[in-house]
Amino acid sequence: MAFLDLTHLEKTFGANRVVKDFSLGVAQGEFVSLLGPSGCGKTTVLRMVAGFEQPTTGSIRIDGQDVTGAKANARNIGMVFQAYALFPNLTVAENVAFGLRVKGVPRAERDARVTEMLRLIGLPDLGARFPFQLSGGQQQRVALARALAPRPRVLLLDEPLSALDAKIRVSLRTEIREIQKELGITTIFVTHDQEEALSMSDRIVVMNGGIADQVGSPFDIYNRPTTRFVANFVGTLNTFDARVENPETGTVTLGGVSMTLAEGSLSARKGDTVAIALRPEALHLGRTEGRETVLPARIEAVHFMGSVIRLRADIGGTKVSLDTFNRADQPPPAVGSAMEISVSGRDAIVLRG
Amino acid sequence: MIRSARFWSWIAFGAGLLYFFLPLIGMFEFSLRAKRGEYSFLAYERVLGDPQFQQTFLYSVVMALFTIVWGVFLVTPTAFWVRLKMPKLRPYIEFITLLPLVIPPIVIVFGYIRLYNTSSFLPLTGSALGTDILLMFGYAVLALPYMYRAVDTGLRTIDVGTLTEAAQSLGAGWITIMARVVLPNVLVAVLSGAFLTFAIVIGEYVFAALLNRPAFGPYMVWMGGNKAYEPAALAVIAFTITWACMGLIQLATRFSKHERAKR
Ligand SMILES: Nc1ncnc2c1ncn2[C@@H]1O[C@H](COP(=O)(O)OP(=O)(O)O)[C@@H](O)[C@H]1O
Ligand SMILES: [Mg+2]
Questions:
Q1: Is the pLDDT of residue B255 over 80?
Q2: Pocket of ligand 1 (CB under 6 A)
């Protein structure tokens, strides 16, 4: 059994079913992200784990112990909020010590732990400051230290980086992940930012409308999305409607051009229409080695982004995005020009639902 | 054009100033004439030297302090709970806290006397201490509109919901949350409510008179009916106290704005 076990969680607010049959097992020390658009129920799941909301049905177990009905202040769970939520009347050190004081940890031990925590977050000298004297990134690190100080069993983070500047956001990702690994603490991280989820997590749960659409490693979620929603939400995607020619060999036609998909990826019958998806990096300009399918296209827009050039093109009525690397000796194609785009059927993702 | 507008606004301001200050100046001038033919502070000396003044004033100050403590104790958890758990009820609660402004104190005090007289289930008026407690409740009701608003404003400056949850996730119960998170953060706001309460209690007449307690308000009225120069001196003293309170409120709110700006 997993360390943190959520079984068939449901939550309704009035007539609004916000979380539907949500089950998830998180192993000890694992870092799991809940990824999904705003309003899909991520925060609600987290709040049920923390004890701020009571699930309508379902159960929550931590380390084999049922905590479904336990009060929030009896669960020993650390929580970090998007808005930092530091106590404005307390200093940084007092904030970090708050949970230890509540627990009745003796003074000397408390002070030692606070010092240790401040060192862990890289702010050993700021203990006497007040929260308003810190930058956003520093405040959020203090919030992390405060949550971790009482040695919680589980750490919950609700979009902790969303209120920060882009640069700090990226550096804090690494920092949070390193601290999490160092302490080996079981963590659920909520975000709507796919980059965050992909770069930080052991596993990602992609949520859509209160449902866990797909659970998997970042590599799986990105490369093998199983639903159209996941495919579209995580990364940029080009979707095509293809006609199945031969389910055994995995042959489909795409705008009259035939293409062979990876073995076993097709479970449809001849004549069916299936949705297939191709990442921008799977489409190549011109004929290239190893990409057997060649599609005629017309270039519609060119976005020069530095090392990468993103093109918009029209393939038989389907609009696609594709990336090509910048080369100083080769200017990008002109808007309106006719080009060939080559792909490999093995890179194609067959979407269900 | 602009110049004449400014001219007229100064005229209006001056007229308002005169309207407000002339009676005060007159009263002050009058209070200095206790000695025939010369200005002196004789009336003030008599008032301040009057043991009854000292007793009633002390009594009212003590009552004011108790009322403030009781009011904070009553209002802070209520305002906190309403913000946290019943935000939809806020307009109604706010309306209820305004009621003491429209219900005459005489109605309230007669209600009290009927409810808590010596032959009732809770005979508070039977003893001096009981009556003092009743008086304190009454004062708290009078102060409610100001106290509630002050505390509620203080709560608005912090994210009550999230801070409460942060404290809960760290293991804190309601008492810890009230004592270590809510109260310290609304203290400055509570202070301005406290000074208003102080001013109200010091000047209050109806409750104290009808409950027959030796408070400062009835003493002022008695003085007004029986002396010539002393009431004017007393009025000046009372005004000074009120203004000192208002000055302290100003200081407190400026302090709190400073705090907020830093945040
Ligand atoms: N206390 C509540 N009462 C009513 N509806 C709520 C409450 N909390 C959340 N919701 C609704 O539940 C849905 C999911 O919210 P939330 O879990 O916050 O989504 P996310 O964190 O993914 O953005 C939203 O439509 C929101 O309006
Ligand atoms: Mg959310």
A1: no
A2: A 13, 16, 18, 36, 38-44
Go through the domains of chain A in sequence order and give each one's CATH number.
4-232 (3.40.50.300), 236-351 (2.40.50.100)
Structure token digits, residue A241:
């409607």
B81-97 as b/e, with b when 16 or more CB fall inside 10 Å?
A: ebbeeeeeeeeebeeeb
Q: For B43-262, which CATH superfamily applies?
A: MetI-like (1.10.3720.10)
ipTM for the whole complex: 0.82
Write the residue with the smallest CA distance to atom 5 of ligand 1.
A13
For ligand 1, atom 4, the nearest C-alpha belongs to: A13
DSSP class of residue B177 equals I
**A75-106 burial, b for 16+ CB within 10 Å, e for fewer?**
bbbbbbbbbbbbbbbbbbbbbbbbbbbbeebe
* Greater pLDDT, A285 or A48: A48
Place B262 in a pLDDT band, splitting at 50, 70 and 90: very low
A335 CA from centroid of ligand 2 (Å)? 41
Closest residue to A78, CB basis, from B158, B169, B263: B169
Q: Single out the residue of A333, A337, A314 nearest to residue A324, CA to CA.
A: A333
- The Cα–Cα gap between A74 and B110 comes to 48
3-state secondary structure of A279: coil
The residues near B244 (Cβ < 8 Å, ≥ 6 apart) are none
- CB within 8 Å: A73 and B184: no
Q: What is the pLDDT of residues B39-74, one digit of tens each?
A: 888 888 888 888 999 999 999 999 999 999 999 989
Provide the H-helix boundaries in chain B: 2-31, 42-49, 51-85, 90-102, 105-116, 128-156, 160-169, 174-176, 183-203, 206-210, 216-226, 230-262
CA-closest candidate to residue A261, choices A217, B186, A274, A125 = A274
pLDDT band at residue B263 using 50, 70 and 90 as cut-offs = very low
0.80 cut: is pTM over it? Answer: yes
For the record, the structure tokens of A181 come out as 């690994």
Q: Please state the rounded mean pLDDT for residues A142-153.
A: 96
CA-to-CA distance for B104 and B138, rounded, in angstroms? 12
Strand partners of residue A314: A298, A319
- The residue ranges of every structural domain in chain B are 1-31, 43-262
The alpha carbon of A71 and the centre of ligand 1 are apart by a number of angstroms equal to 21
State the pairing for strand pair A154-158/A186-191.
parallel
